[in-house]
């Protein structure tokens, strides 16, 4: 999985998202977080949904029992960089509230049925993350 993710990230970056912008019928972005242990940037390709300027991603980790590292990174430091196609911009990340998750989860499942499978594999509630433009200042 790490190798596939690295190849996807490289192709997406090199082509400004022309290669790798869609997977399983959904749009893809690149999320760069700062490692909470290493302090180094880490980038992963993820499916996303959009609502105006807000982007929504799922910390599914394929239904594993622990959250993905990128999620733990953004919990520790919510300042992230998101690349959608050729555009990179700083954003703020936060975990969706229970009410927000209730709104978004059916949309996430409708976009990619695999998320329902992932949720069935784990007892943890898969977090949804809202990515929003950083406010100046």
Explain the overall architecture.
This protein is of the alpha+beta class and 137 residues long. It has one domain (2-133): Pnp Oxidase, Chain A (Roll), CATH 2.30.110. 31% of the residues lie in helices and 34% in strands. It is built from 4 helices and 8 strands, in the order αβββββαββααβ. The protein has helices at residues 2-14, 69-76, 98-111, 114-120, and strands spanning 22-23, 26-34, 41-47, 49-51, 54-58, 79-84, 87-95, 128-133. Strands 1, 2, 3, 4, 5, 6, 7 and 8 form an 8-stranded antiparallel sheet that branches. Strand 4 (49-51) and strand 5 (54-58) form a beta hairpin. The protein is globular, with a radius of gyration of 14 Å. The model has no long low-confidence stretch (mean pLDDT 91).
Keywords:
about 30% helix; Pnp Oxidase, Chain A
Brief account:
By secondary structure, this protein is an alpha+beta fold. The protein is 31% helix and 34% strand. The protein has one domain (2-133): Pnp Oxidase, Chain A (Roll), CATH 2.30.110.
Q: Tell me the major beta sheet.
A: 8 strands, antiparallel
Task: Compute the average pLDDT.
Answer: 91
Highest-level CATH class: Mainly Beta
CATH topology: Pnp Oxidase, Chain A
Count of β-strands = 8
CATH superfamily: Electron Transport, Fmn-binding Protein, Chain A
**What Rg, in angstroms, do the CA atoms define?**
14 Å
What class would the helix/strand composition place it in?
alpha+beta
Oligomer status = single chain
Q: Beta fraction of the residues? A: 25-35%
Shape: globular
Instruction: Assign a percent range to the helix content.
Output: 25-40%
Number of helices: 4
Order of helices and strands: HEEEEEHEEHHE
Show unreliable segments: none
Q: Can you tell me the CATH architecture?
A: Roll
- Any idea how many domains? 1
């Amino acid at each position: 999985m790490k190798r596939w993710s690295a190849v996807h990230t490289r192709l997406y970056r090199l082509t400004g998202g022309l290669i790798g912008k869609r997977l399983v019928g959904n749009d893809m972005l690149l999320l760069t977080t700062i490692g909470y242990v290493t302090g180094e940037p880490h980038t992963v390709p993820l499916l996303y949904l959009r609502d105006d300027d807000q982007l929504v991603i799922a910390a599914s980790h394929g239904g594993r029992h622990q959250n993905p590292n990128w999620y733990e990174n953004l919990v520790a430091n919510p300042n992230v960089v998101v690349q959608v196609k050729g555009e990179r911009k700083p954003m703020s990340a936060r975990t969706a509230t229970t009410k927000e998750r209730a709104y978004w989860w059916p949309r996430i499942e409708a976009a990619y049925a695999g998320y329902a499978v992932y949720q069935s594999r784990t007892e943890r509630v898969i977090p949804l993350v809202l990515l929003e433009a950083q406010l100046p200042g």
